[in-house]
């Protein structure tokens, strides 16, 4: 304490705070790089071999032309995204002259494909953001989409690579700058949490619901599977239809659309491991 009653200034404190901020930013960059790597690896698994997936640092920008997104959409919803409707299919125009307005059609195709499999719209980025290269949110959207599609048995699972991948100092610094310049960086929890929180329309047509009850009563697994898919219940796995039938047949409280969906999820939870879903 000095004679005027003012304590000594700790010059080390600001440096300590700066050091903590630096560590926090580095950890944040590493986490996001892991998500980028996981999404890139998953895309490579989902897309045909002739479809070149860019490097981790180049992926966000490449997504802006929508070609990879549309080709992914064709993979899980071919009726929504016929190959003939994908603009600049081989990206030759993009590589030679850059993006054109028609590339936004690819993004719209991808969007429609996601909505067709009941992916929550709140997670889907705006078309203009994707086209202009603001694709951090798109990466998190793809991560959540991977989980959703795996539960529907339409695509392979996405693998958590935390702790299994090393990144160069240059990659980390590049991502730190990118995250700093982004107005909004969603968390993985936000993206995947929307899958659990979304509202699902389970107002099944009375005729279909009656047919479902009849199939259960008659122990008709094949018809039950067809009806569950037709009624758009989520996460129906054809390999587990016998389990669904057994569980639905022993339900004592009476069946409703919501209880059927609940039983499907409960059966999946018992027979599909958590590691598979992640």
TrEMBL record:
GO terms, molecular function: actin filament binding; calmodulin binding; GTPase activator activity
Domain Calponin-homology (CH): 33-151
SMART domains on file: CH
GO annotation terms (biological process): mitotic actomyosin contractile ring assembly actin filament organization
Domain of life of the native organism: Eukaryota
SUPFAM superfamilies named in the record: Calponin-homology domain, CH-domain (SSF47576)
CC terms in the record's Gene Ontology section: cell cortex
Name of the protein described by the UniProt record: Calponin-homology (CH) domain-containing protein
Taxonomic path: Eukaryota, Metazoa, Ecdysozoa, Nematoda, Chromadorea
């Amino acid at each position: 304490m000095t004679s005027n009653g003012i304590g000594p200034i700790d010059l080390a404190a600001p440096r300590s705070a700066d050091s903590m901020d630096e560590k926090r930013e580095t950890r944040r960059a590493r986490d996001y790089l892991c998500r980028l790597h996981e999404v890139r690896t998953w895309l490579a698994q989902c897309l045909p071999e002739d479809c070149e997936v860019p490097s981790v640092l180049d992926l966000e920008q490449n997504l802006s032309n929508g070609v990879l997104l549309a080709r992914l959409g064709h993979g899980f919803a071919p009726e929504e995204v016929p190959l003939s409707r994908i603009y600049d299919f081989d990206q030759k125009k993009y590589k030679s002259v850059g993006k054109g307005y028609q590339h936004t059609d690819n993004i719209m195709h991808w969007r429609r494909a996601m909505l067709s499999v009941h992916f929550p719209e709140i997670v889907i980025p705006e078309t203009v953001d994707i086209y202009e290269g603001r694709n951090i949110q798109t990466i998190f959207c793809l991560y959540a989409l991977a989980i959703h599609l795996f539960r529907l048995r339409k695509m392979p699972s996405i693998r958590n690579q935390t702790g299994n991948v090393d990144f160069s100092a240059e990659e980390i610094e590049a991502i730190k700058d990118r995250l700093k310049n982004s107005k909004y960086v969603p968390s993985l929890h936000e993206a995947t949490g929307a899958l659990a929180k979304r509202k699902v329309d389970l107002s099944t047509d009375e005729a279909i619901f009656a047919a479902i009850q009849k199939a259960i009563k008659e122990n008709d697994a094949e018809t039950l599977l067809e009806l569950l898919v037709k009624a758009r219940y989520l996460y129906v796995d054809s390999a587990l239809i016998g389990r669904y039938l057994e569980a639905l047949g022993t339900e004592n409280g009476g069946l409703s659309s919501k209880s059927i969906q609940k039983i499907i999820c409960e059966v999946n939870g018992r027979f599909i491991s958590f590691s598979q879903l992640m």
